[in-house]
Amino acid sequence: MKKEEKExxxxxxxxxxxxxxxxxxxxxxxxxxxxxxVGGHPICKNCQKFVLPIIFAxxxxxxxxxxxxxx
Length: 71
Ligand SMILES: [Zn+2]
Description:
By secondary structure, the protein is an alpha+beta fold. It has one helix at residues 59-68, and strands at 8-10, 19-20, 28-31, 34-37, 43-44, 54-56.
């Protein structure tokens, strides 16, 4: 295994890294399509939304994306 290859998961809305992957939390909630289980969607603690995290292979990729958004 290589070192320093930790994947980074960031909020797709604001690129915050402060995501809450509460296991088993909020197992059911109202969605656009009705009432259904949440399949491992984390909550972004920054924007308080359920988000699909963007996965970056490295911190460098993450920093690039962040710059690209001008944040
Ligand atoms: Zn966010």
